[in-house]
Amino acid sequence: MLKVAIIEDEKPALDKLTSQLEELNLCTLVYTNSRPVASLTELQDLELDVVFVDINLPQINGVAFAKRLIQDGYSGQLIFTTAYSEFAVDAFDMGATDYLLKPYDTERLALALNRVNHKVVGQQKTTQTLTSKFVGKVCMIEVNHIEAIKLEHGQAIAYTPSQSYPLDFALDDLMHMLPSQFVRVHRDSILNTHRIDTLERWVTGGYLITLQNSRIQITSSRNGAKLLKKILNL
């Protein structure tokens, strides 16, 4: 899980963000502080993936605080939270991952965390989490639980052993985001090679692939079959 710190001087805002993070269950909240200057020293001793910084802080502006934090050696992600939009350009100029305008909902927060996670995955090659939104509900899906992703009526659907989830990503984009065990075996299908149960030769020259727990079946193209033969040493 992502390790998170929050610098926020307003208790209602801190309580709301803390509750939203707990709801998403993607992060471990390791530090909070309402006093930004005091927190600069304390944050140096923590291993963090992302710091949420309020813009309107006492003693020091949130953007100036973030600059000091970076000067002190912080290399993680930054997400600014504020009711004011005029600082957005400054925030992104210094490399902020996102800029949340209050009041923001849990769905918008999930999108920001997904952006953080993609950057962390790119840097550390750790397991990724994807965001699924359906009928007003936001779900976080651990990538290693996904057995296959199929394009159905223009919508990417991720299949886990127990459930399916719509994804707001193109398959091309997902292939850049997913770990190496995910292989595109057809123009409309990606599968997790660690979750293959059986492969059968199919009349089209590809494979009929059955996944372990979901029992989803995918037909590969001929090129997809060649790729699987190479990867699986068939």
The main sheet orders its strands as 2-1-3-4-5
Q: How helix-rich are the residues, as a percent range? A: 25-40%
Low-confidence stretches: none
Rounded to an integer in angstroms, the radius of gyration calculated over CA atoms is 21 Å
Strand content: 25-35%
Please tell me what the overall shape is: elongated
In N-to-C order, the SSE pattern is EHEHEHEHEHEEEEEHEEEEEH
Q: What does the average pLDDT come to?
A: 88
Main sheet attributes: strand count, strand direction, barrel closure: 5 strands, parallel
Number of strands: 15
**Straight-line N-to-C gap:** 36 Å
Class derived from helix and strand content? alpha/beta
Number of helices: 7
Write up this protein.
With 234 residues, this protein is α/β, with parallel strands linked by helices. It is built from seven helices and 15 strands. The strands form four sheets. Strands 2-1-3-4-5 form a five-stranded parallel β-sheet, with helices on both faces. The chain has a five-stranded antiparallel β-sheet with strand order 10-9-8-12-11. It has a three-stranded antiparallel β-sheet with strand order 13-14-15, covered by helices on one side. The longest helix has 19 residues, at 106-124.
